[in-house]
Every structure is written in structure tokens, then in C-alpha cells.
């Protein structure tokens, strides 16, 4: 966070830069084009003095400029003030005007300096010269790399059709241009991160409420969080609002098989048995209905299917749930009563990475239902319909019609989802089977599917059968390492991005302004897409530049908004949060126009219209359910090469309960061998009472395979090599917690 610590980090960072500048000579020999790059090449290490030249970066010599911009180190898009001196970003601070981050930056946000100035970052376009994954590359000019990419894409288009190129990406301010390229190219096959992340939530809430509401964490008096580790898995402003207001909140109840940092801040920690939360919430609904604690007027006026729910819930008693969840029935009933009596200023928070197990969508449906019953909809401290600022757009010609079906069979295969986001597991499975057609080209933008999808060996096979893979990234990620061509994007501090509108309780727009010139030969994605577009005969779709694009976006904004955007980097729409407007209107965008306790769309598509609980298989004797998640210092698999963050947290470990550790003869800090049905690895044991006995836990994102990431390479173990490929059938969301692990001591 802000303050002294950040300054010390910046100091140590400068020392770090001094060290790598020493390697200047090897850069020069490389620049002469005389060397082939290899896995052990020093090219991954070099960060020359020239990279820091202040030329064109603005500001007089020695002067410190402040550039308002937006952090890109995770999904949160916090406001940043970049301090720039002589063309070098010397410090990052939180932007006090920004409603998401409220003047703060997390450790990762601060450490963005060590991304832009990472000696291992991608500097020039690279073309593969040896076998895939061997790390043999040669430096190419942009001209050559773009020609090479376009030629290969056209070859695949001609041989198999445009649908045989897959385009995958995750959210970012320049992702839109990539998705336009996919459509202009004529491929229906786009796939994004939701089925690896929050799809269960989206599907559950959207079909219950007709929208995905925003929990008013700042004003809520009672919050329940299940598997949402907000102290470590940071979501702004929720993380800040939760802890800022902890003292005047009546109760904070946290449900997790682990005693996380968030649990340590809770009034009640519920160490639920993993995979059974749905039983707990169904029992809460039972108590709230049986004891008539629900908001009768609201339920009568605004919901559909209460009678069916009442009947459905009869057998889901707290006593029944206690047997499933291993939480006392009295505790479940107590929580239900506390929740209902705190209404409407109460929130059962729905979390974000909801990709746990086979119950994931119905679990989130149950959360949607319990919120609806207590009538917290559109009330201060409750669940509020989000608002956004409307932006203008740049017109492009109509995209060509696509005749081929999608490779994942959507929309028919997952009719409740957003089709264009795709279903990752189905994409991978059908590509491997070439069903209904072969997919031979893969364009990847700001996405790391090799390390983002379970059962890594399957993603590897998917890549192996591709004729061409191109990756646009800032670092040699595990996916980039498998590419045929790497196109290096400039990091966020080196780019001007489109204006972003945030759908939120406090709607606002923010603008990522450029702090410094792009280093080396890196380029913003908009430029890469335009150049590829030209070479693919699709130039008409990219007939604008970033300035024109932003001008169109901001055309209708009031003058003060444009002024704030420029000067503060953010404009917050006045008059928010607003409560009660939607309530007064009363119509929900669902088939019945009501909050659907009983989902008519689920029914239409053959899914349980009311949440039915199904027990998960128990871990076979001698094994543990593997749980995975985050800590506060890393984003997925994206930051494990960051020197500052590694200084705070060097590797992932296996959390195991002391009684279990003793049984198998493992002490804290010992190396253990872990084995699942699909993979194995070695890592340190973290013996702790902060986890239940029936499960083990490790952080996601470690154990990277790319030798281009010198600090991250093989540090800890990759959960993706251990987790089996399983997905849930309603939303297609990955089931990350359905793998059982054997653990034994080494030596
Ligand atoms: N086992 C397991 N798997 C998981 C999860 C888990 O908890 N456990 N979490 C899941 C979740 S919730 C999510 S959202 C997904 C995330 O999946 P991904 O989005 O694939 O994850 P990241 O590791 O963040 O990869 C982002 C990539 O973008 C690159 N990048 C960063 N900034 C830029 C930029 O400005 N431009 C370009 N071109 N590239 C950039 C990074 O270097 C990195 O290679 O992972 C999912 N996978
Ligand atoms: N520092 C940091 N912050 C991030 C991110 C990051 O990578 N790093 N990523 C961002 C993104 S894209 C996302 S999606 C969010 C993810 O945010 P979260 O979903 O909150 O994060 P996770 O750590 O993946 O999982 C949360 C918790 O679920 C617990 N859990 C596991 N199984 C169960 C279960 O069956 N029941 C219950 N009740 N709990 C269970 C785990 O022990 C873990 O503590 O974080 C966002 N913020
Ligand atoms: S939470 Fe941290 S990493 Fe994410 S956008 Fe905010 S400051 Fe950046
Ligand atoms: Mo996510």
C-alpha cells in the first residue's frame, strides 16, 4: 500500500535496475542480429541503458511529472498516479480521485515498475527457429513478424476455413480490437476467461435477476462471504470497503475450509467442508422460510416461484445440512436468523472465482435466492443494480456472416451462457477431437491458457496439433513459450488505452494515459491489430487511430467529464450510489419480469429450476481434496517473475493440517511429493491448523515452465499439472476443486 514501504521498494528497485544494466554488451551483440536466441540466451536478461532514454517522454530534464493512469496488473483497474522523471517511471501511487482504489495501490500495483522494467520482458518480435517449446527464437523485424503471422493465418483460412483459427483473450482495455480482428477474419471461435473464473455467478444471477447486481459492501451491516477471500484475493472497492467499515458493521461472517486472512477479520468463521456450501445456503433458506423471516411484501410483489421454493426446501433442514457441511445445525440456523434480521442492510456476497465444483451454479443460484428473500434488492447496504456511463463508439463495416458452428457447440451446448465468451473446456476437448472440424491456428492476446487451464498436458496437446500459434504478451509466459511467433505489446505505463467505463455502484470512466514511451520495439495492441488487419485484407475494419477512437468515445460527455479525465484520469458520475429507482419501476429483465426464485430459463433448458444439492464424491482413503486460490502478492500466473513480489513471497507451499501431517510423517517446511491422477510434483509443506483435515491447499500460478521467465521458472509447483479436466454442465465452468491428491514425504 501507499507510504514509506512503497518508497523503500522503489529504492531497492533502482538497485535492481543498476545490476541488470551491467549486461549491456550482450544486448549490443544481439541487436546486431548475429545471435540466435536460445533458452539459455542472455537476451532474456538484458535491459540496456538505452531503454530508459527520456526522449519523447515529455517534461524537462530532472522534473518529476505526474501522469494519471490505470493499473493493469489485475482485473480491478485501480487509479494510478505515475511519477515520471527523465522518461523513467520512478514511483507509482494510488489516485485519490478514483472510486475503485480510493488512493491506494496493492503490492502488485506498486510492483508494476518491476514489470515494465523486468529484464525478461518481451522486447522485439520473435520467430521460433527450433522445436516448439525448445526456446530457440530469432529476433525479427515487425514487418517480417507481421507478414509471417498474416501469411500463416491466410494459409489456414484457405485450407480449412476462417473458423479454423481460434482467438483467445482476457479482458483489457485493448482487447476489443483483438475481438474485432476475430470477427473481421470470419471466425466464430472466440474464447475468453469467464468459464475459468466467474461464469457460475454470471449465469446464476443473470437468470435470477436479469442482471448481475453489485453488493453495497460499504453500507452493509451484515456481510456473509463464502469462498471469497477478499483480504488476499483483492477486488476493489469491496476489499477496501469491507475492512474500512469493519468496526461499525454488526457482523461479518466468513465461510471457507481455510482460515485465511479474511477469516481472521471475521466475527464468525465457518470452516465448511469443501464443496458443501450449497447445502448450507439451502438450509438457511429453509430457516428463513419456515420461521417467516423473509420480506413478505417484497417476495409477493417482486418474485416468481415462492410456493415452489417453499415446497422444494422442506427437506433441506439445518440438521440435514449439518451432516453434509460439518457445521452444527444450530450455527446454520443462527446465521440464517442473523442474516434475515439485518435486512435490508445485509449482503450474502457472491464471490468471483466461482469455479469450484459440480454444484457451482446452483450454489450461486441459492445465494441469489437468499438475498432476494430478505428484500435487500436496490436498498442501501443491499444488492444494487449497477450503473455505467455511456460512451460513444467508432463505427466499422458489418462483419462477414459466419456459417460454421462454434467449436464448443454454443449456444446450443450451453444456452444459458454468453456465447462469445465460449466454454474453454469444451473448446479444448473439441479441438483435440477435431470435432466438428479441425482448428489449426491460435491467436492469443493477453492470455495464458497453458497456465490458466487445468490438466496442462491437454493444453499442450492442443498446441501440438496447431499449425500456427501467435501470442501477444508483455512477458515470455508459459503460453508465449509455445508460440511460433511472439508479438511484444507495450506495458500499460507505455500505452494510451481507450477510455474505460466501469459498471458499478459508483459509475465512472477512467483513462489510461501514457506515462512513458514504449521501450525496445514494443507496440500497443491497436497498432498490432491495424497492421495485421492490413495484411489480412481487413484494413477497412481498422480505419481509425487511438485518438479518433477516444474522441468518439468521449464525444457526448459533459465538459467537466472530459476535464476530469484529462486532469485526474477519472470522472465519477455525480449522484451515485442511487437506491430504490429500480425497485420503484419493479420490472426485472427475466421471462416473468420478476426475480425468478424458480428459474423458467433453467427449466426451459432442462436444468433444475430450483437448486438441487448433489453430494460430491469423498476423497478416497489416503487422499485429500485439492483446493487452490490466491495470495495477495500475485495475479494468477502473471507476476511470479517479479523481483519485488518474490521478495515478499518466494514460492507456493502445500497447506496441510498438523494431524494429517503427523500421520504421514511430514513436518513444517519438509519437501513433499504430491500426486494426482494426472500429474505430480514436489513442494514444501506448510503444516497449519488453518486448514481442515480433509483437504490440502496450494496457491495457483507457480511452477512455471517458461525458461524465459528466469525467476519464475520451476519455482514451486503448478496446480494446473495436478488438477483434472472437469467442468460443470450448466455453465461449463471449470471445476478446480474436484481432484484428490496423495501426499507423501520425500526421503
Ligand atoms: N488452477 C487454477 N487455475 C485458474 C485459477 C485458479 O484459481 N486456479 N483462476 C482462474 C481465473 S479466476 C482467471 S480470471 C484466469 C486468468 O487467466 P489468464 O488471464 O490467462 O491469467 P494470467 O496469468 O493473468 O495471464 C495473463 C497474461 O497476460 C499477460 N499480460 C499482462 N498484461 C498484459 C498487457 O498489457 N498486454 C498483453 N498483451 N499481455 C499482458 C501476462 O503476462 C500473462 O501472460 O485463470 C484461471 N485459472
Ligand atoms: N491478489 C490477487 N487478487 C486477485 C486476483 C489475483 O490473482 N491475485 N485475481 C482476481 C480474480 S480474476 C478473481 S476471479 C478473484 C478471485 O477471488 P476469490 O474467488 O476470492 O479467490 P480464490 O483465492 O481463488 O478463492 C477464494 C477462497 O475459496 C476457498 N474455498 C475453496 N473451496 C471452497 C469451498 O468449497 N467453499 C468455500 N466456502 N470456500 C472454498 C479457498 O480456500 C480460498 O480461500 O480475485 C481477484 N483478485
Ligand atoms: S488491485 Fe492491485 S493489481 Fe489490481 S488493479 Fe488494483 S492496484 Fe492494480
Ligand atoms: Mo478471475
Termini gap: 41 Å
Mean pLDDT: 92
**Global shape:** globular
Largest sheet: 7 strands, mixed
Proportion of β residues?
15-25%
**Helicity range:** 25-40%
Number of continuous helical runs:
25
Would you mind describing this structure in some detail?
The chain has 747 residues and is α/β, with parallel strands linked by helices. Helix 7 (199-209) runs parallel beside helix 15 (360-373) and helix 10 packs across helix 14. A hairpin with an 8-residue loop joins strand 4 (126-128) and strand 5. Residues 1-36 and 48-57 have low confidence and may be disordered. Strands 5-4-17-16-15-6-7 form a 7-stranded mixed sheet, with helices on one face. Strands 23-25-24-27-22-26 form a 6-stranded mixed sheet. Strands 11-10-9-13 form a 4-stranded parallel sheet. It contains 25 helices and 27 strands. The structure holds ligand MGD (2 copies), iron/sulfur cluster and molybdenum atom. Residues 72, 170, 193, 196-197, 353, 445-448, 451-452, 454, 472-475, 477, 489, 491-492, 628-629, 635-638, 700, 719-720, 723, 736 line the site of one ligand MGD.
What's the structural blueprint in terms of helices and strands?
Elements lengths: L3 H18 L2 H8 L32 E7 L8 E7 L2 E7 L12 H4 L2 H4 L9 E3 L8 E3 L2 H19 L4 E5 L5 H11 L4 E2 L7 H11 L4 E2 L6 E5 L11 H7 L6 E5 L5 H4 L3 E3 L6 H14 L5 H7 E2 L1 H7 L5 H8 L3 H14 L3 E4 L10 H14 L9 E2 L39 H10 L7 E5 L3 H4 L3 H9 L3 E6 L11 E4 L11 E3 L5 E3 L14 H11 L10 H9 L4 H10 L1 E3 L8 H5 L9 E2 L3 H5 L18 E7 L13 H6 L4 E4 L1 H7 L6 E5 L4 E8 L7 E5 L40 E6 L2
Parallel strand pairs: 6-7, 6-15, 9-10, 9-13, 10-11, 12-21, 15-16, 16-17, 22-26, 23-25
Antiparallel strand pairs: 1-2, 2-3, 4-5, 4-17, 8-14, 18-19, 19-20, 22-27, 24-25, 24-27
This protein binds ligand MGD (2 copies), iron/sulfur cluster and molybdenum atom (MO).
One ligand MGD binds next to strand 22.
Amino acid at each position: 500500500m501507499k507510504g514509506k514501504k512503497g518508497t523503500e521498494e522503489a529504492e531497492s528497485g533502482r538497485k535492481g535496475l543498476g545490476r541488470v544494466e551491467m549486461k549491456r554488451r550482450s544486448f549490443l551483440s544481439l541487436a546486431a542480429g548475429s545471435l540466435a536466441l536460445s533458452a539459455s540466451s542472455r537476451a532474456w536478461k538484458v535491459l540496456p541503458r538505452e531503454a530508459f532514454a527520456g526522449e519523447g517522454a515529455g517534461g524537462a530534464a530532472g522534473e518529476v511529472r505526474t501522469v494519471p493512469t490505470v493499473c493493469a496488473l489485475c482485473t480491478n483497474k485501480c487509479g494510478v498516479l505515475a511519477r515520471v522523471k527523465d522518461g523513467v517511471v520512478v514511483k507509482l501511487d494510488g489516485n485519490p480521485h478514483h472510486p475503485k482504489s480510493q488512493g491506494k495501490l496493492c503490492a502488485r500495483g506498486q510492483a508494476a515498475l518491476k514489470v515494465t522494467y523486468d529484464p525478461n520482458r518481451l522486447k522485439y518480435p520473435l520467430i521460433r527457429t527450433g522445436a516448439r517449446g525448445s526456446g530457440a527464437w530469432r529476433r525479427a523485424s515487425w514487418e517480417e513478424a507481421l507478414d509471417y503471422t498474416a501469411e500463416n493465418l491466410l494459409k489456414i483460412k484457405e485450407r480449412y476455413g476462417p473458423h479454423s483459427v481460434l482467438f483467445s483473450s482476457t479482458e483489457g482495455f485493448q482487447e476489443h480490437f483483438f475481438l474485432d480482428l476475430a470477427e473481421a477474419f470470419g471466425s466464430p471461435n472466440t474464447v475468453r476467461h469467464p468459464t475459468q473464473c466467474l461464469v457460475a455467478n454470471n449465469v446464476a444471477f443473470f437468470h435470477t435477476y436479469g442482471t448481475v447486481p453489485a453488493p453495497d459492501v460499504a453500507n452493509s451491516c451484515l456481510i456473509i462471504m463464502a469462498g471469497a477471500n477478499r483480504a488476499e484475493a483483492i477486488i476493489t472497492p469491496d476489499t477496501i470497503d469491507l475492512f474500512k467499515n469493519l468496526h461499525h458493521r454488526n457482523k461479518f461472517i466468513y465461510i471457507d475450509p481455510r482460515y485465511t486472512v479474511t477469516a481472521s477479520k471475521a466475527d464468525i468463521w465457518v470452516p465448511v467442508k469443501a464443496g458443501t456450501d450449497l447445502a448450507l445456503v439451502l438450509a438457511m433458506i429453509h430457516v428463513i422460510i419456515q420461521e417467516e423471516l423473509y420480506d413478505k411484501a417484497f417476495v409477493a410483489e417482486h418474485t416468481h416461484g415462492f410456493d415452489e421454493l417453499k415446497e422444494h426446501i422442506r427437506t433441506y433442514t439445518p440438521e440435514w445440512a449439518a451432516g453434509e457441511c460439518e457445521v452444527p445445525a444450530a450455527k446454520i440456523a443462527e446465521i440464517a436468523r442473523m442474516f434475515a434480521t439485518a435486512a435490508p442492510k445485509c449482503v450474502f456476497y457472491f464471490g468471483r472465482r466461482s469455479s469450484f465444483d459440480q454444484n457451482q451454479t446452483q450454489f450461486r443460484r441459492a445465494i441469489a435466492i437468499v438475498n432476494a428473500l430478505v428484500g435487500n434488492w436496490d436498498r442501501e447496504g443491499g444488492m444494487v443494480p449497477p450503473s455505467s456511463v455511456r460512451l460513444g463508439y467508432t463505427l466499422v463495416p458489418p462483419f462477414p456472416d459466419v456459417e460454421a458452428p462454434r467449436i464448443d457447440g454454443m449456444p446450443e451446448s450451453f444456452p444459458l451462457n454468453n456465447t462469445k465468451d465460449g466454454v474453454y473446456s469444451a473448446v479444448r476437448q473439441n479441438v483435440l477431437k477435431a470435432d466438428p472440424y479441425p482448428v489449426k491456428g491460435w491467436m492469443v492476446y493477453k492470455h495464458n491458457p497453458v497456465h490458466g487451464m487445468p490438466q496442462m498436458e491437454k493444453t499442450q496437446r492442443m498446441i501440438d496439433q496447431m499449425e500456427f500459434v501467435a501470442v501477444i504478451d508483455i512477458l515470455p509466459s508459459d503460453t508465449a513459450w509455445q508460440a511460433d511467433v511472439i508479438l511484444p505489446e507495450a506495458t500499460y505505463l507505455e500505452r494510451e488505452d481507450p477510455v474505460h467505463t466501469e459498471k458499478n455502484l459508483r459509475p465512472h470512466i477512467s483513462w489510461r494515459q501514457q506515462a512513458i514511451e514504449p521501450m525496445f520495439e514494443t507496440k500497443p495492441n491497436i497498432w498490432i491489430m491495424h497492421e495485421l488487419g492490413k495484411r489480412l485484407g481487413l484494413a477497412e475494419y481498422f480505419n481509425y487511430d487511438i485518438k479518433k477512437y477516444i474522441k468518439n468515445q468521449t464525444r457526448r460527455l459533459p465538459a467537466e467529464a472530459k476535464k476530469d479525465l484529462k486532469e485526474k484520469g477519472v470522472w465519477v458520475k455525480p449522484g451515485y450510489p442511487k437506491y430504490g429507482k429500480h425497485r420503484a419501476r419493479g420490472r426485472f429483465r427475466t421471462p416473468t419480469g420478476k426475480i425468478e426464485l424458480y428459474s423458467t430459463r433453467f427449466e426451459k433448458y432442462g436444468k433444475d429450476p430450483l437448486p438441487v444439492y448433489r453430494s460430491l464424491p469423498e476423497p478416497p482413503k489416503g487422499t485429500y481434496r485439492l483446493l487452490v486460490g490466491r495470495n495477495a502478492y500475485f495475479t494468477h500466473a502473471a507476476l511470479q517473475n517479479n523481483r519485488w513480489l518474490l521478495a515478499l513471497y518466494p514460492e507456493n507451499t502445500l497447506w496441510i493440517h498438523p494431524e494429517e501431517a503427523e500421520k504421514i510423517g511430514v513436518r513444517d517446511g519438509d519437501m513433499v511429493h504430491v500426486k494426482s491422477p494426472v500429474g505430480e510434483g514436489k513442494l514444501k509443506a506448510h503444516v497449519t491448523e488453518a486448514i481442515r483435515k480433509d483437504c490440502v491447499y496450494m496457491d495457483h500460478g507457480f511452477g512455471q515452465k517458461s525458461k524465459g521467465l528466469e525467476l519464475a521458472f520451476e519455482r514451486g509447483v503448478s496446480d494446473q499439472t495436478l488438477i483434472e479436466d472437469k467442468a460443470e454442465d450448466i455453465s461449463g465452468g471449470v471445476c478446480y476443486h474436484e481432484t484428490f491428491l496423495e501426499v507423501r514425504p520425500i526421503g
